[in-house]
Amino acid sequence: MTEILLIHPPVSKPCEPPAGIARLAGALKAHGGNYRVIDASIEGLRFLLSGRAEAGDTWTRRAYRHLEENISFLSNGGAFENQGRYIRAVTEINRVLADRSAPRSSQVSLSNFTHATLSPVKSSDLLRSAEVPEDNVFFPYFSGRLAAVFERHAPDAVGFSLNYLSQALTTFAMLGFLKKLDPSVKIILGGGLVTSWVRGGGWRNPFAGLVDDLVAGPGEEAILALAGSEISPDRFLPDYGVFRDYSYLSPRPVVPLSTSSGCYWGQCSFCPERAEANRFTGLPVEQALDDMEALTAGEPSCLIHICDNAMSPSLLRGMASRGRGSPWYGFARIHPSLADPDFCSALRRSGCVMLKLGIESGDQRVLDELGKGIRLDNAAKVLRAVSGAGIATYVYLLFGTPPEDEAAACRTLEFIAGNREYIDFLNLSIFNLPKNSPEALCLNTFDFSEGDLSLYQGFVHPRGWDRKRVRRFLEKRFRRDPDIARIVRRDPPSFTSNHAPFFTGNIL
């Protein structure tokens, strides 16, 4: 029987197990597959945080001295009752990671990895990382870890789940090492970032000879084919048991669960999901609810993280109709049902502790031109109803879109300030134009970066509202508004929305 090793590579936020790997493991388990799983992200970060300090400056020595205390603190509910102490813990851990990674021309944090000279959006740099894996900051960790696994179990194939740019350089260093360790091993590359590469248009595989197969979209069918099986009609659950021995940096076990892929709305202009032609598919609502109950049956204290791009109205109705369950949070569109206080109260009774809401702009013209399908008056009602039900709100804003100008950005400021008492957290982003977006044909575009794997392209803003002006506005006006500054300061550093539910007071 084919032995398969599934790897979640560094670096992603070390607060919960990877949902994609859990789904693959669940498919293999249901079909009698032979598999092992490594969460190399949290293992790699733990490795960098181990060992003795040799720091020179006072602040870094302090960070090393309190390291174990800070790590333990983030896994304790008490950390989330004192934001100042929490911020200090995250800052000091990141200081240690920066100190550990600097000698290898790298910058590692709890949520990111960058290299001084190598770029994750250049295929030549990724291949360079594979050619010289010993230059990677995580090499002392993964060389020993993978060598031990191969000596004991000799896997026939290794699957990497590559979702973020922060994982790319280390992923290729690891697969380059594996090809040297065992040239016969088959390497499969999947995950969100790979899907974006392959489906982004004009894809030409630069990794032939190094990667045996690249999988776009859900990988269950591909991994089962590798194991010599086919997907049966029977349903299967993600397997989170394989992560039971990992100590993630959250005060409760977190179960990330995807009930759909793609976006049910699918009409927003300039959306990467549209540019990549990712069709919406979702589990039947009853099955999704049953899965939640089954996954949390042995862990009643866990927090469910619904990872859908946007929870469908039918799923929200299903959640509202169920009895009290484990606490949960997820992303939802501004929908008329959420303006109903009774409906929101039912969501709260079901366990909802926080909703992430994509409002994007406080200007109606901008929303209309973006195809958001949102009315600002209804958005204000949703914020009041959700907050009034005791559910925290995490609001996403997007600045610098083609229809926006400075006057529109000022109206966004006014909308947020006017609804400040109903907003608990804010995410502020600057718009990136997806490559191959149909709407991009109407813009004067240029290369966003030198990388051949870049998912975005630069553009001349039709209203002169370029990135430099947007950044200045955000720093000089938006963030300095007293009402908004108080909201922005609540956002947990590094972990952001993944830890925000623990600051709501709803689950600790």
Instruction: Spell out the CATH superfamily of the largest domain.
Output: tm_1862 like domain
| Major pleated sheet | 6 strands, parallel
Count of folded domains: 2
Q: Which residues form runs of ≥5 with pLDDT under 50?
A: none
CATH class of the largest domain: Alpha Beta
Q: Helical percent range? A: 25-40%
Q: Sum up the overall morphology in one term.
A: globular
CATH topology of the largest domain: pyruvate-formate lyase- activating enzyme
Q: How large a portion of the residues is in β-strands, by DSSP E?
A: 15-25%
| Subunit organisation of the chains | single chain
CATH architecture grouping of the largest domain: Alpha-Beta Horseshoe
Rg for CA atoms: 23 Å
Structural class determined from secondary elements: alpha/beta
Q: Give the N-terminus to C-terminus distance in angstroms.
A: 45 Å
- Average pLDDT reading: 92
Instruction: Identify the strand order in the major beta sheet.
Output: 8-11-12-13-14-15
**Total number of helical segments?**
19
- Tally of extended strands? 18
